[in-house]
């Protein structure tokens, strides 16, 4: 059989020599390696004080976007739910009533919008599918929770704060 | 001050010394658990405990407090008396060994010469042997009284392991005794103070003693009685709360005592190079000697940990083969060789 790489090495099955049978040189070598590791750079970080940076293409928790006037962009078209390979997104559409123009950008909006973070695989297809730039993947991840229902994120978890309300 | 023909100062002095030695070994054992975790972490490229206090220094207190507040479970089918006796013996025996170790030379306070050794018995080494081999009763009783097959297996392993390794240990020591001609630890140290350390004369004997000390302390790579992954913790499987703490603690005290012993018997004890030529006051030399012994002991404790996190555990047959077919013949050769050299020197 041909080797897949050139790094394959034949296993040495020769009987052990006397020096090898003593095990002392091998143990000394091992102790040398472990001693060297005492002074090496630590592989861990003290997590809550110190956080590892994510890579620039990291895909984390979703956010629902607003436009510059603070209106929700989502029109509940359902394209993200269709694109989702894990079927993590559900939504219910509703019609915008007169007087709600400052809340919703288009005539139709999502009355309920839920993402199950346990199902979500953070592939980012919803972000790609969205024609209204309404959904984005942020750079945070879902915190731990004691119950499964805590991982079903509704609109109040996903929507970004209203920029206009914040300015006031 | 003699009253009722008892030297009361002597009594007070010894009681003080006993308390100090006891507290010292407990504190060292406590911080050895912290050290163990730190060394393990460093060797594995981690940071180790660093939350409780600066550099995690309060971690042993937190661990101890946790063990005290844990629920105390005594299995229904266990022998209650023996179940409690097991960890008690382990702890008491571990603490008893420190009595004959000379922690330093004599201090002179207000005209009284105070020896920094609880008891300078002329059979110090025999005493240590007797006490150390009693330690296995704690494990044996604990494992048997738990009425659990894993605990029993572990205690049987512990008993046969300790008996097997006591033989080469004793033989290695006989060679040392032939060299020094005394059983008193104090005299052994005094000889090393004025001559070379015993490690120079007995390198093989020291090596055998070291390996056996690992086995006697049930430390890796000889931690078969504990064997977390095959016996579920071994003899202390059924133990909880502070009784478990006692077993674990006794192991660390044993480690401290055997480190101190090795430093005393082979590495000069409280003697350090040029200690008589520095021109310091005798009290100063004694204190420096104690510090020297303490540093040597700590280095040995570090060595124990270093080995634990490097060498994997032996299989049981390998353990027995090493004990009976390698160490005992080696120790015999060492003993005979030493005897021959001594005989040649004296004729």
From TrEMBL, chain A:
Domain of life of the organism encoding this protein: Bacteria
Primary residence: membrane
Domain called 4Fe-4S ferredoxin-type: residue spans: 65-94, 111-140
Catalysis performed (reactions): a quinone + NADH + 5 H(+)(in) = a quinol + NAD(+) + 4 H(+)(out)
Iron as UniProt keyword: yes
Alphabetical list of Gene3D superfamilies matching this protein: 3.30.70.3270
GO MF, any single term: quinone binding
Protein name (Swiss-Prot/TrEMBL): NADH-quinone oxidoreductase subunit I
Species this protein is from: Chitinophaga terrae
Lineage: Bacteria, Pseudomonadati, Bacteroidota, Chitinophagia, Chitinophagales
Gene: nuoI
From TrEMBL, chain B:
InterPro entries: NADH_UbQ_OxRdtase_su1/FPO, NADH_UbQ_OxRdtase_su1_CS
Record field: transmembrane: 15-34, 81-103, 123-144, 165-183, 195-215, 244-267, 287-310, 322-341
CC per GO annotation: plasma membrane
GO biological process terms held by the UniProt record: aerobic respiration
Keyword Chaperone: no
Pfam family, one: NADHdh
Keyword Transmembrane helix: yes
Enzyme Commission identifier(s): 7.1.1.-
Catalytic activity: a quinone + NADH + 5 H(+)(in) = a quinol + NAD(+) + 4 H(+)(out)
Signal peptide extent: none
Chief location bin: membrane
Intracellular or extracellular location(s): Cell membrane; Membrane
This protein's UniProt keywords: Cell membrane, Membrane, NAD, Quinone, Translocase, Transmembrane, Transmembrane helix, Ubiquinone
Top-level enzyme category: translocase
Membrane topology recorded in Swiss-Prot or TrEMBL: Multi-pass membrane protein
Molecular functions per Gene Ontology: NADH dehydrogenase activity; oxidoreductase activity, acting on NAD(P)H, quinone or similar compound as acceptor; quinone binding
Classification via NCBIfam families: PRK06076.1-2
Function: NDH-1 shuttles electrons from NADH, via FMN and iron-sulfur (Fe-S) centers, to quinones in the respiratory chain. The immediate electron acceptor for the enzyme in this species is believed to be ubiquinone. Couples the redox reaction to proton translocation (for every two electrons transferred, four hydrogen ions are translocated across the cytoplasmic membrane), and thus conserves the redox energy in a proton gradient. This subunit may bind ubiquinone.
HAMAP family: NDH1_NuoH
Subunit structure: NDH-1 is composed of 14 different subunits. Subunits NuoA, H, J, K, L, M, N constitute the membrane sector of the complex.
Family: Belongs to the complex I subunit 1 family.
Name assigned to this protein: NADH-quinone oxidoreductase subunit H
Gene name, Swiss-Prot/TrEMBL: nuoH
């Amino acid at each position: 059989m041909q080797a897949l790489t050139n790094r394959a090495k034949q296993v040495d099955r020769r009987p052990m020599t006397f020096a090898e049978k003593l095990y002392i040189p091998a143990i000394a070598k091992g102790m040398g390696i472990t001693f060297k590791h005492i002074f090496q750079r630590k592989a861990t970080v003290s997590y809550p004080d110190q956080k590892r940076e994510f890579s620039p293409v990291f895909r984390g928790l979703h956010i629902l976007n607003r436009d510059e006037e603070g209106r929700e962009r989502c029109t509940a078209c359902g394209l993200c739910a269709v694109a989702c390979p894990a079927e993590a997104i559900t939504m219910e559409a509703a019609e915008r009533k007169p007087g709600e123009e400052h809340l919703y950008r288009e005539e139709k909006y999502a009355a309920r919008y839920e993402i199950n973070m346990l199902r979500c695989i953070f592939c980012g297809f919803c972000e790609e599918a969205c024609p209204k730039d309404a959904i984005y993947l942020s750079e945070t991840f879902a915190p731990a929770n004691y119950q499964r229902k805590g991982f079903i994120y509704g609109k109040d978890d996903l929507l970004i704060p209203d920029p206009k309300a914040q300015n006031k | 001050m003699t009253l009722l023909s008892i030297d009361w100062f002597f009594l007070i002095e010894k009681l003080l010394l006993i308390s100090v030695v006891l507290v010292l070994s407990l504190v060292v054992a406590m911080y050895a658990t912290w050290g163990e975790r730190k060394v393990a972490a460093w060797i594995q490229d981690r940071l180790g405990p660093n939350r409780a206090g600066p550099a995690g220094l309060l971690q042993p207190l937190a661990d101890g407090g946790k063990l005290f507040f844990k629920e105390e479970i005594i299995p229904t089918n266990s022998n209650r008396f023996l179940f409690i006796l097991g960890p008690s013996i382990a702890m008491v025996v571990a603490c008893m060994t420190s009595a004959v170790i000379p922690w330093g030379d004599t201090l002179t306070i207000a005209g009284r010469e105070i020896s920094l050794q609880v008891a300078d018995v002329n059979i110090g080494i025999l005493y240590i042997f007797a006490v150390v081999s009693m330690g296995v009763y704690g494990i044996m009783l604990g494992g048997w009284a738990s009425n659990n097959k894993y605990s029993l297996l572990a205690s049987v392993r512990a008993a046969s392991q300790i008996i097997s390794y006591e033989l080469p240990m004793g033989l290695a020591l006989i060679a040392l005794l032939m060299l020094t001609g005394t059983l008193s630890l104090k005299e052994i140290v005094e000889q090393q103070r004025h001559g070379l350390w015993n490690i120079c004369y007995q390198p093989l004997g020291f090596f055998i003693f070291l390996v056996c000390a690992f086995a006697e302390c049930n430390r890796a790579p000889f931690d078969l009685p504990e064997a977390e992954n095959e016996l579920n913790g071994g003899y202390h499987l059924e133990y909880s709360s502070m009784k478990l703490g006692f077993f674990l603690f006794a192991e660390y005290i044993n480690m401290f005592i055997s480190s101190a012993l090795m430093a005393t018997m082979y590495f000069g004890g409280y003697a350090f190079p040029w200690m008589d030529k520095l021109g310091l006051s005798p009290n100063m030399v004694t204190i420096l000697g104690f510090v020297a012994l303490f540093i040597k002991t700590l280095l040995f404790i570090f060595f124990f940990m270093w080995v634990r996190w490097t060498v994997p555990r032996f299989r049981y047959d390998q353990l027995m083969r090493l004990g009976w077919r390698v160490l005992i013949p080696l120790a015999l050769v060492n003993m005979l060789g030493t005897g021959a050299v001594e005989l040649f020197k004296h004729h």
